[in-house]
Every structure is written in structure tokens, then in C-alpha cells.
Amino acid sequence: xxxxxxxxxxxxxxxxxxxxxxxxxxxxxxxxxxxxxxxxxxxxxxxxxxxxxxxxxxxxxxxxxxxxxxxxxxxxxxxxxxxxxxxxxxxxxxxxxxxxxxxxxxxxxxxxxxxxxxxxxxxxxxxxxxxxxxxxxxxxxxxxxxxxxxxxxxxxxxxxxxxxxxxxxxxxxxxxxxxxxxxxxxxxxxxxxxxxxxxxxxxxxxxxxxxxxxxxxxxxxxxxxxxxxxxxxxxxxxxxxxxxxxxxxxxxxxxxxxxxxxxxxxxxxxxxxxxxxxxxxxxxxxxxxxxxxxxxxxxxxxxxxxxxxxxxxxxxxxxxxxxxxxxxxxxxxxxxxxxxxxxxxxxxxxxxxxxxxxxxxxxxxxxxxxxxxxxxxxxxxxxxxxxxxxxxxxxxxxxxxxxxxxxxxxxxxxxxxxxxxxxxxxxxxxxxxxxxxxxxxxxxxxxxxxxxxxxxxxxxxxxxxxxxxxxxxxxxxxxxxxxxxxxxxxxxxxxxxxxxxxxxxxxxxxxxxxxxxxxxxxxxxxxxxxxxxxxxxxxxxxxxxxxxxxxxxxxxxxxxxxxxxxxxxxxxxxxxxxxxxxxxxxxxxxxxxxxxxxxxxxxxxxxxxxxxxxxxxxxxxxxxxxxxxxxxxxxxxxxxxxxxxxxxxxxxxxxxxxxxxxxxxxxxxxxxxxxxxxxxxxxxxxxxxxxxxxxxxxxxxxxxxxxxxxxxxxxxxxxxxxxxxxxxxxxxxxxxxxxxxxxxxxxxxxxxxxxxxxxxxxxxxxxxxxxxxxxxxxxxxxxxxxxxxxxxxxxxxxxxxxxxxxxxxxxxxxxxxxxxxxxxxxxxxxxxxxxxxxxxxx
Length: 842
Known about the structure:
The chain has 29 helices and 23 strands. By secondary structure, the chain is α/β, with parallel strands linked by helices. The chain folds into 4 domains: 35-82 and 200-274 and 611-678 and 692-827, Calcium-transporting ATPase, transmembrane domain (Up-down Bundle); 93-191, Distorted Sandwich (Calcium-transporting ATPase, cytoplasmic transduction domain A); 284-303 and 475-601, 3-Layer(aba) Sandwich (Rossmann fold), CATH 3.40.50.1000; 312-449, Calcium-transporting ATPase, cytoplasmic domain N, CATH 3.40.1110.10. The strands form 3 sheets. The protein has an 8-stranded mixed beta sheet with strand order 8-23-22-21-9-18-20-19, sandwiched between helices. Strands 10, 11, 12, 13, 14, 15, 16 and 17 form an 8-stranded mixed beta sheet that branches. Strands 1, 2, 3, 4, 5, 6 and 7 form a 7-stranded antiparallel beta sheet that branches.
């Protein structure tokens, strides 16, 4: 049908099987209103009402709405990012529209569409078979039946395919009968409850950390007021507010949201660069990858086979120059043995045949009979009437063609081809192969009389006509990507089904070192030896999917974090076995994409290298955000607990803490996710996945930043308390805090190098966030009604300036310590830095 007709048939919103909007809204409200932070805010509001502080209760309720809105915005953006990734990596459907084959999302299909199904594709809708050839379908996802089902239309009757099943073998043409919610998959989805998405390992760590800190918060909120009551006999009202304030200051409710926001939004940025993350855990794992097992065709190369050289028989055996007519004869004979046609969709034809079709000029008729390539004969042939003679054209592997040839075409005519000349032909083909080309031999035979029998009777007594050299050029960006990954301590092994000489040539051009092995050689190796060879970087040629799977399993058993690329149905086990399965978005099958953690939309190895670098940057940013968040939490607890322990009024009331939390949430969630790399991520070894997140440098950073900010804020507050009273001291403490925690974020955004003015321009979110904190500080100092709403008192300008300078001092101290540590590291080399050419740390 036409595109216009399909659009008219498609219901509004498409045929996507989506979650109902009402369900998403109810789930969000239920989750938000039961979040620990919101429950605590509502509890504080109730206490204010009980104490008769109705204005404060109203302010708290307004702030509850603001906090929930802020959290909702963070979660919504992350959810949309993850949903976008799912749509980007969703299977595609091949459908005939407007007289040609097009690739469309499954939700754009309508009833009566005619679709093409090939090996590895997912059936996008319920459909009735029209044509089928050796069709084998895995229906376990829908029916639970473990054995695949074979469909054969020759037995008669109608055959129906169910949406969501996978084609394992063969190809078919089918007519769509049901789509979307009306399909089998849609009906099943409507009966299944919405399952919670699986948490990433880091999310699990953060949830566990949040639970532990919650216990600390509960203890602190009870212990500190008890100590204050015993030592200073404070009023019950003040003790109650003290406990709630400490609980509110210490509850780490935002940690899981922070992880989802950074990973989700960071993954969306990866998708914009061509690396679609199907599972958030892959975003974490990218930075730990120690070994990449990559295929060759389409990943390192352009997957664009071209006929680069034609060598006639007289050139090969006589060393003579060939005329254009002689070269064209070899091309035309090869075209007779090719199944591709001009204008045919490249996904439906062999790339070698397409290259021959593009190179041959029109002139000879289309073959009347074709004998397709098979693995037993290792050649193909076709027959057509040319200038009154019935000519058979043959192309195939040089060894297979030489076995069937008895003559060769010289400049003077047809001559016998003996064993020595055959050896010369094979040697010439080997020389072309050594340059990275795939070589086929071309031969012919004039059929006298009526042809009879199959290819075995016709493909004999052939005349050798020449050699064809095909090449799939290396992607120009691959050598640099290889250097970057090797410089980052990532080993690269090529595993390909191609012949050794071609694989070795491409490996040399790409900059991959190491020897070349045939997969059969590796059969006798132990798993330990196989893993060691792979980790040193090598080329494994003539490899089958089970060879790739064994290499991946051996490396994983040796403690390596393996990323493996694949595109076919048979690659799915290796993609599942690897820590990161990387599927090809263009050439890959649906089965491979659904088994993978990462999908390369452009099939390029350079995109995988960029994703690895960005994955490291993303993890570093998440680490920085968590370090900053916990440092500020530590400062908030310390500056709240210290005055309570010595019998002084609280520096921050719950209303003020809500304001600080709001700034903290927005800053940590969005300013850090856009932080650029520190330029040395790809010069460091992969991080150890078994290493704890809260390691010694992380804890040192939390303590340094948190205690510095707490010290200047507490000192400012306690120094002002005797002179300005509680209201004025709180104003100065809040001004010191706002300036200090924002500038501390600027400094802690760079872990291993000093902060410079140029850094402020590369991530505008950071300076904008700091500017908002400075503007709020100014408003609190100038606008009296706003200060009164937050129980703040007036503060003289010199004291306010001193508080701002004190806030800057905390960040300055952290920056100075970072610079000192950097100079020490320059004298003592960092063992985590990668050395080019060395194996990565286990």
C-alpha cells in the first residue's frame, strides 16, 4: 500500500503498546507521597500546626509542593530518557510501501501491510504467511514452547505468525492481520502487571547506603536532643524541632534519584552520539571494560564491498596488459553468476553480488538460469545467450574454480591449463588476499546443444577468465579509536569469520597488534591460555559463533570485563555472556539487539570507543555528584548538631533546610551530569568493578569538603550569635552556607586538576547554579519580608560580606588541598594510569 493509505488506517497515537497515562500518574503520586523526605516534611508541618505556627506550616506545605515538583522533574526527565533509549533500540520492520521496501518502527504498521521477515528479525505484528522458505520460528516468548516451529506452506492451509516471536532461519513474506493492542503480544501485555525496572548495581549500592544513613539520621535526631536536654534543660518545643531538623538534614532521600538522573540523562547523551544504552547497568560497566572482542566487517570496516581490481587470465599468466573489452568480459561473466539486480535493496542481496552488479556495464542479457552459491561447491553460476552462444559464467573461491577448469583464455585464444599454471593462479590470488582483499576467480564455458542436468554437470571443463579483488575499506576513524582504547588500558581482539590474510591486513591497518590465529588452532588451547592470548590482543580468523562464545566465557572466567560486538542470531549467546553485549543497529538482527546492552546505531567501532570514554566520564561525574552530595549532607548534620550539643539555638530551622535541600537536589542532579571529562579518562586503566564506591579518596573528599563547609558556617553562626541574636546569626549562617556550598560544587566538579576560569564556560549549568545561590543570598540580605518569612533577622553589610568571604574560604581550602595533592602525584606516578601496549589490571 502507499504511505498515505497506511497513515489513514493508523489510529491516532500509533499502535504502540504503551502504559496507560492514568496508571503512570497514580504510580508517581503514590511514590512521591510515600518518599521519606516528603513524609518528614509533612510531619514537620503537622508539628508546626500543633505548636500554633500556622504561617510556618503553610510555608512548609508550599515547599512540599516545590520539592515534589523538583523531584518529579528530575524523575520525569530520567524516565523519558530511558523510554527514549528503549524506543531507539526497538526492533524495526521491513514493509513494502510505495512500491519499495522500507524500514519502519513496528507501531507504524497497519492491517494488510506486506512485510518481509529474515533470519534474526522479530515478528512485529500478527501476520499470515504468503511465502516461506526454510522458515524456523522461536515462539517461546509468547507460547512458552521451547522447541522452535518450522513453517512449510507446501502442505497447504494457512499459517499464522504471532507478534513477538523470532525468526531463527530462512525468510518469509507475510500480510499483517493484527497490530498493537489487538495483536497477540498486545493482549498478553494488557494482562501482565507493570513490573518495576531492574535496578542497576550502583542503584542497589546507593539504596543500601541510603538505608544505612537513615539509621544514622534516626540515631542523631534522637541522641542530640537528648544530650541537649540533659546538659542545658532546653524547652520541649525546641528539642522537638531540633530532632526533626536533624532528621530532615540527614535523611539521604535523594541518593537513588540522583543515580537515576545522572545515568538516565547521561545515557541519552550517549544515544545522541550513536550508542544506545538498552540497560542502565551498561552505563556503569562501560568504564570497567578491560577487553573488547570485536568483529571485522561493518564494525572496523565500512561494510561496503567494492570491486577494486580485475585481473584477466592473460595478465595473471602472461603479464600482459588487458584491454577494456577483456576486463569488461570478466565483469559480465561474474554478473551472470550473481543474483543481485540493479536497484535492488542492498539488504536483500549478497554484498559481493551487489558490487559486481555496480561494476558491470549494461550490455549482456540477464541470465536465464542461475545456480546459487552453496558451501559445498563454494561457487555460483548463471547462464545466458550471448551473441548466439549459450554462455555459462562461474565465480567462486579460486581453489574451487581451479578444480573445475581445464583451459584458460590467453591473448591468442584458449589454451590448456595444467597443474603448474593452476599453482600460479592460486599464488596470484594469495598475493591479492595478502593485501586485505577478498578474491574470487571467474571462469566460463560455452554450452553446445541443449543444456541438461544440474550444476555438477555444467560447471566442469571451464575456461579460466580472471580474478576479481573485493575490499571492504577500513573506517577512517578506527585507527585513532584503537589508539585511544589501547592507551586507556583496554585490550582489543578481533574475532572474524573472514580468511586469515584479510583479517590480518585489516588488523594491521587498524593498528591492532598481536598474532593471527585460525579458530581451529584455539580448540586445543585451555581456557586460561585462550583468555591470556585474547588479553594480549590478537586476531582469530575463520571463527564461528561458538568460537566467539568460548573466548568471551574464558575471558570472563579469568576476571576480565568483556565487551563483545555481534550482529547475527548466533551472536546472541556471546552478547548475553559478555558484561557488555554490543549489537549493530544497522546490520544487526533483532535477536542480537534484544540480547545486547548497547546498540551502535552506525555500526562503527569508533562509536564504541567514544561510548567507552563517555561511560568513564559519566561514572566519574556520578562519583563526583555523590561525593559532593554526601559532603554537603555531612556539613549539614555537623553544623546542625554542634550548636544543639552545646546548648545553643539551631542555626537552621526546618523551613530553611527545605530551601537548602531544594538547591542541593537541583545542583547535584543537573550540574554534575553535564560536567565534561577531565581529559585523562582515556589515559587511565579501567576501574576495578570490585572496588568500593566509598574508597579512601572518596571518603577523604567527603570529609574535607563537608568539614570545611561545616567549620566556616558554624564559626560564622556562633561568632554572630552574641552580637546579632538568633535571627541575624541565622541570616549570616544561611548566606555563608549558600555561597559556600555552591562554590564547593564548582571546585568538587574537578577531581584531579585545578579549577580554571575556562572551566566555567564548558558546563554552563555549574555557574548558573552558583549564580542562583548568590542571587538568593542577596535577596535574603536585602528583601526584609522574605527574610522574615524564613525567621531571619537583619545583618549589617560588613558582617554579611564577612559571611560571604567565609563561604568562599571553604571552597578555597578544598581547591588548595587538591593542588597540593596534584603536585604530589606528579612526583609519584599514579599506578592507575594506563601504559600503552601493556595489559590492563585484572
